[in-house]
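Dear U.,

For the methods section draft, I wanted the exact inputs and outputs in one place so we can describe them consistently. I've listed the two proteins in the order they'll appear in the manuscript figures. Please don't edit the token lines directly; just add comments below if something needs changing.

First protein:
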Amino acid sequence: MADVEALVPPLPVRTVLWRTQAPFLVTLAVALVAGAVTEAGPTWPYVAAGVAAACATAATGLLVSRLGEGVLIGGAVVHMVVVAGVDYASWPTTPSMVGLMMLPALHLSYGFRARRGPYLLAVGVPPILTALALGSSRAVAATWASAAVQILALVAVATVVYLSARHAWLQRVQLQQALLEARAAVNTAQVVADAIETGVTYYDTAGRVEVRNKAMTGFAQRAGYDAETVSAQHIYQSDQVTPVDLGEQPMERMLRGDMVDHDLFYLGPPGDQRAVTFTTTKLDGLAGPAGWVLAAHDVTDLVNAITTREEMILTFTHELRTPLTSIIGFAEMLQDTLDLEELGIARPVEVIHRNATHLSTLVQMLLQAGIEAQAEPHFAPTDVGDIVRESVASFQPKAAGRGITLEAGTPIGDTRAEVDHLRIRQVLDNLVSNALKYPPAGTTTRVLVEGTPDHVRVRVVDQGPGIDPQDLPQLFQRGFRSVTARRTATQGMGLGLAIARDIARAHSGEVTMVNNPDGGTTFTLELPRHPNVQTADAAAGDQATYSSALT
């Protein structure tokens, strides 16, 4: 506490002198003039008192800068002595002036950081000096009574002022201590923020920067960020060429209330760019919004690693396809041209053919996983119900071999939309294939399709064991295989569902999954009829035009 008190600056000396000495000198001068005018005897005691008080004030002003606030305390005591001297010299012709000690007593009680020493002088010196002055001048009882009343009033007022001053001073010290702690916390937070690689900026509700760490400063400099225009000169879309419009930049989107969630941008001039993801978080305080936090993370190494991995996968799979095609072709030629049973190699050739075919399927899936996200759909008016029937028909042999009944439900409503026929067929093949892997024999898998004014939905409903809840968050991740797949040793690379979702999203659609209450799962493919077509509130004429376009 003492260290904190030392940091609280005292009032300037001139301010103290003006607030304490000047009122006393004015009051004393008035009292002395009044006493001298009414005095029947000599007036030299009043003149001497005024000169002494003025000299004490002058000396205080000259010495305080060298000797410190102790000179101020001495000056206040001198003023009390002057008042006592006037009492001694002027009695019995004038009443006691002990009340004039009130002003220096208040000065001692209120000032000097509300310490006890000056306060004790304020309440102890006046009674002593008054007793000495009146006792030496042999004052009568009435004068003693008058002086006692004034002394009691002085002590009472000085005590109240001291207690108030001490309370105020302690509050000031506590506020100073809280301020120091807050500054230390801010400094610590800044050091910690500067130590992390993720860029972080805190904006208040007016969009002003309150905290920004070193990493975010680096990102801002790379992007050519201008604080006045709140825009960046070098921020590009994922193609690394197209500049991001001001209204779509992370800062602008955040300030207008749009959430930014791991959106990828490229910062820096072409040829010297870094891939950075941005995320915004809105802060809410007790009284309402408290601002926003914008976080940026450099993912250049990750993006480069993914790109390199995809390129390697595409290269290796392309290289594998040629020898696999030869192996499968020669195995089929052996099966077609030779009597393998007679030669005793039917079993080995069949194993070669089966495993080579399986490996070829895996290679094809790797190729699909590498190119699906990059390929653009070729939209054309298509009846999704026809695609459902095609897919179900192609999987009938596999379903029969597993003892599962595979059914295509009757389409409900208008099931036409503009889609890429081949790619939506691939989605359905992946979903139907997945729905035939896990259900036991004797169950039924249904593929249902229905149209709404806005969308076409396809549901693949099986009666299998369902998906373990712990697998749901990762179900559509590339390479993920569920607990059921690992437990049953079901073949697969965990790419089918990821590919299906990628294709659906390329159509502005989605693939979702839920566990059925009575067992099994339902995968739903939802496709918009067309991104440019009005939806539920479309006028009848517009809907007729759209329907005729699909015919």
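Second protein (the one for the lower panel):
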Amino acid sequence: MRRFLLSTTFALLGGSVWAEDAALLLGNVEYRNFDRVPRAGGVFLARDGLEGLGFAVEASRNGGANQIAQNVAGFADRAQNADRLVVGLAGRFVTDGTRTWLLGSDAEDPTLFDLGADAVSVDAMLRVLAEKPGHAVLVLGALPDEGQRISPYLRSGIGPLNAPNGVSIAMGTPGQVHGFLMRGLAQPEADLITAALDYDVELSGYVPGELIFMPAADEVDLSPGPVLIDPNTEAVAWQDAEALDDADSYRTYLGAYPRGQYADEAQSRLEAILSEPYRDQRLAEEALNLSRDARRQIQRHLTILDYNTRGIDGIFGSGTRRAMTNWQQENGYPQTSYLTTEQINRLDAQAARRSAQIEAEAEARRQELAQLDQAYWNETGGRGDAAGYRAYLERYPDGKYAAIAQAELDAIAQQALAQAESQERDAWELIAEADVISGYRQYLVDYPNGSFAEQANARITELTRPAEDTQAEAAAIAAENELNLNPITLRLIEGRLEDIGLEPGPVDGRLDEEARRAIRRYQQEHDLPMTGYLSEAVLVRLLADAVNQ
């Protein structure tokens, strides 16, 4: 029976003419402090094929620092006298921009200065492989779209690799390099150039027109050596399926063990995979390791573009996923509801452009309103009488000249109070203190031409506002209270209002009447309901304006 066709049912013993060849296979799927790397365990499964071709293989799956140190030491010893060398590494890589390491499964918070204990140096592996030019292959399986900051001087992913003379480097996703290793490299007389094309693996370094790395089948010692049945075969098969974690791996396990110990779990996982049409996209987004702040930024960008996320909380719930789907549809992407790095960058650019458009529109409206304000003031308050001041305040309660108009009315009122007869003044003070409609009406009956008649009429008008206005104000107050804004955020908002010339008064984290007036002006300029109270829409636009200054 051909040894290179033996499955994991057997543990092979005995020598071969190619026993001097050496291989190192490390595949890490599970990490203590990082997300899973699906299918990274696939490199481990090439062990049997390489052993069948006469390689002495050091291999581990989900190995921690101690385990991978033993594997690397064993490989380094055998490599000195080997004819061929193969190194397969898959999992989570980090780089300082020049050098690259594969993290062990128990790596916690790696920094540039303590990687030696928790990782395998890819550059060190290349130096070992350089000793066998033309007969050395390095295979690397990593997730796409990496580049996240891990710690000072380190980011995720594979850095630039300088292949030594005669060393071939094959790179791809964990799934791609699994196929390349199992059905390409670990086969007699396989051409690695053709295998790389078949499995969409990128080759660099030593890449001749044809690279037949393994010997022909008849050159390998195929005599059946002593074999032992492995009683843990099913457990190993299940571990292999879990390591690959895809539909084909669970189907393979169920085909071999339809009534096996893990059959129900395999069937459940298979059904879950088949029922989730965008599983790969979900896993790819999870691999981006988006922080809570990054998720809030994405929600803020979608909101600015008028896609309702139902809140900006850094949690991608159903509202946010629906907004993402709608955005993808409008931009010609598959409607998966999961974002890629390319899509996040495009969303960021669109939001920046839209924020600039919103601010430009607001500036144009601000100038238009200022011209109208000025013209109305010239025709009313600018004439210097109480009727004109009141007319101006009725139209522009938060206008540019509102404070002046109110101050002039207050001065007129004081002057009227000084000129009024003592009895009328006393009556007015009592009525103003009570501040009820009936009191003001009684004053007008008693003093139809009194000094305070105009003020009484104005106050009656204010107190008889429609009930819906009062309800709307109460709703706006409740919406602002739900935002639970702290003084630091309030000062930021007041500062932003001050920066754009809306005069909110002191920047002290307390929204007084001046600040409320500034908010109403901002709402008017941005065509938002003029309540004078903060809402989520106001916050999103204010923050977007601040970011794009």
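Candidate sentences for the figure legend, describing the second protein: Residues 276 and 282 are 9 Å apart (CA to CA). Confidence is low (pLDDT under 50) at residues 1-19, 222-231.

Thanks,
Y.
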